[in-house]
């Protein structure tokens, strides 16, 4: 795979967002662990529905490059919205709307497998998995640290910055920013060849 595949990988945003979701729900909404678990279940279920229903449909009508661009753009919208909404009902609506966020991963795996050819499927999938695991490791270490250091941030702009400003930044705006970088990098991708759907 391309050496700069990591910057196109929204895995940092996805994992970082998921890792701190229970903390965010507890600190901002004073939820129980059970309610935060329901939110995560809705978000993971929405991602699964996107992979099972939306991806096969899009694969028939849209080039692979555009599916990656759409997935990264959806990440910008959904992660930022989750960090900005102010009611738990809207947070549940946002969680249910992440249908497109995970579409990136199977497209990249298929494209890299096609690039390496059938004799090197193992190596190609291993290379992609290594980059994705690296992104996940970085996110699992960095996001909780950012969250704890920004938990009680306070600024001198009371109309804009509330007590939960730090958690909102780490939960929504930083993953949204990671998705912006992935989106910009994916726009620069050449045409991607994948295995054709029949």
Count of DSSP strands = 0
Largest sheet: none
Proportion of residues in β-strands: under 5%
Shape: globular
Instruction: Give, in order, the helices and strands.
Output: HHHHHHHH
Structural class: mainly alpha
Poorly predicted spans: 1-7
Helicity level, as a percent range?
over 70%
Q: What is the terminal-to-terminal distance?
A: 25 Å
What would the average pLDDT be, to the nearest integer?
83
| Count of alpha and pi helical runs | 8
Query: What is the gyration radius calculated from CA atoms?
Result: 18 Å
What features would you describe in this structure?
The chain is an all-alpha fold. Helices cover 75% and strands 0% of the residues. Helix 2 (11-29) packs antiparallel against helix 8, helix 3 runs parallel beside helix 5 (88-96) and helix 4 (64-84) runs antiparallel to helix 5 (88-96). The longest helix is centred in the last third of the chain and has 30 residues, at 121-150. The two termini are 25 Å apart.
